[in-house]
Amino acid sequence: MNHILVVDDEAEIRSSLEEILREEGYGVAGAGSAEDAMTLLRDAPYDVILLDIWLPGRDGLETLAEISQWPLEKRPEVVMISGHGTIETAVKATKLGAYDFLEKPLSLERTLIVVKNAVEARRLRAENVEFKRQFSAASVLTGESVPLKALRQQIRLMAPTNGRVLIYGESGTGKELIARSIHAESLRRDRVFVELNCAAIPEAHIEAELFGVRHGVQPGAPAEQRTLDQRGTLERADGGTLYLDEVGDMSLKTQAKVLSALDDQMFTPVGGTQPLRVDVRLIASTNKNLEEEIAKGNFREDLFYRLNVVPFFVPPLRERKQDIPPLVREFLAEFGRQYGRPRVEITEDALDALGRYHWPGNVRELKNLIERVLILNPRVVRIERKHLPPLTHKTGARAAQEFTSLQQARDAYEREYIQKKIEEARNNISHAAELLGLERSHLYRKMKALGIAVRE
Fold first, then answer.
1. Nearest partner of 177 among 211, 203, 212, 152, judged by Cα
2. Inside any domain, residue 167
3. Residues 270/253, Cβ–Cβ less than 8 Å
4. Which position among 56, 81, 267, 300 has the lowest Cβ density within 10 Å, counted as fewest Cβ atoms?
């Protein structure tokens, strides 16, 4: 239920508004002065305040000025009411942050519409504040290793610029997190962050995803046909940041169009005739060696130099094992909250076992492992070494010695390699089959034989 506070020194108007709003399903309280209103606001949150300008003692504009200084997440929407309104008063109220201005005698229909819209505006604002809080939390780089400290320093230096960034790193190292961190510390932090995974989208669809689609519907066509137009990621990212994940997987044809769009920040949607201009800060990432791809003829050299203005390298987890303990504790806290177990701990012996593993899947593999351990041990509040999967107890030559046959070792390697490629393809089995050079049906048979769960 949404809560409305009616502040008016005329008891008849106040009572009438309270009754009407209650009939509409709102929780309503009333106050005859600014002082009484502030007392009620300190005791309980309200979504919308209907605030009369002319009040005994402190007037409504003074009260509005005070409320406008409150933190966004606690601030209600304020609708000003006046029987002697002027344009000057309305402008002043708007500048102080009023949502709208109602003149007496009040129109019932307009009042209800304004209140409804103000409630919705308050909800959207609260969601936006929460989204930014979560986005900021999701942009924190966890760890104190030397490579990670260097990354943080690099982000602080170049995030406030508009320089294009190319992030290198193996799959699962956290390239997306680096991109989000750059955006969170940039001058565009209050604008959108739009991601496009170039590896997960079929070749036939990537241009439409990137540039959008215009179907050229003629004037007078049915409304349902007009909704077929699709805004691409470039258009949606206007004013903010566009993150192209696994940019090395784009076709040469798409690369040429991206190059053109980067040069003048203009592009034409697929099927469109009118070019669109955008203001986008571009961040790209890849798990490939693009210079090798250029030599093979798979990547345009001119696009590489456009993207590689500020290169970032995210080291694999095996090269920064000092970060494993804080990462583990972060994942335990995250999944503990998710599964209603906020106080799960881990022993030093278990952390030591995790530290000796070589982590081919990097941070993503570690995160998945921690979630799996919590799911499989629903009553455990202290993770010990015995709770960890056998894989984490093996490293290098020692792991190979524990296989009882060559076939077992070959199956283990093949299982790990296929799982890694499936992760690269974001669980898109068709794309994983392409990466492996297999037919989709052949990959399914392999997965079934090796005991790999199918998730799409």
1. 152
2. yes
3. no
4. 56
Neighbours of 340 (CB within 10 A): 7
Same domain, 244 and 169: yes
Q: Which two tokens stand for residue 149?
A: 């400290």
DSSP letters of 76-99? PEEEEEESS--HHHHHHHHHTT-S
Strands 276-277 and 266-267: antiparallel
- Residue 237 and residue 360 in one domain: no
In 3D space, the residue among 246, 267, 254, 261 whose CA is nearest the CA of residue 207 turns out to be 254
Look at the chain and report how many structural domains it folds into: 4
- Are 301 and 327 in a shared domain? no
Please tell me whether residues 55 and 96 are part of one structural domain.
Answer: yes
Domain of residue 385, residue span? 316-402
Per-residue pLDDT of the chain (456 residues; tens, 9 = 90+): 789 999 999 999 999 999 999 999 898 999 999 999 998 888 778 899 999 998 888 888 999 999 988 877 778 999 999 877 677 787 888 888 899 988 888 888 999 999 999 999 888 887 666 565 555 544 568 888 998 899 999 999 999 999 999 999 999 999 999 999 999 899 998 888 899 988 888 877 888 888 888 765 444 444 444 344 578 899 889 999 999 999 999 889 889 988 988 888 888 888 888 888 899 999 999 999 999 999 999 999 999 999 999 999 999 999 999 999 999 999 999 898 888 887 899 999 999 999 989 899 999 999 999 998 998 888 888 999 888 887 654 444 444 444 556 676 677 778 777 887 887 787 888 888 888 888 888 888 888 877 776 655
3-class state of residue 296 by DSSP:
coil
Instruction: Let me know if residue 268 belongs to a domain.
Output: yes
* pTM more than 0.70: no
Interhelix angle 324-338/362-376, rounded to 10 degrees, is: 50
Q: Residue 285 has what DSSP assignment?
A: E
221 located within any domain: no
Q: Is residue 154 part of a domain?
A: yes
For residue 449, what is the domain's CATH number?
Answer: 1.10.10.60
Distant-in-sequence, close-in-space partners of 30: CB < 8 Å, separation ≥ 6? 5, 6, 7, 8, 14, 15, 17, 18
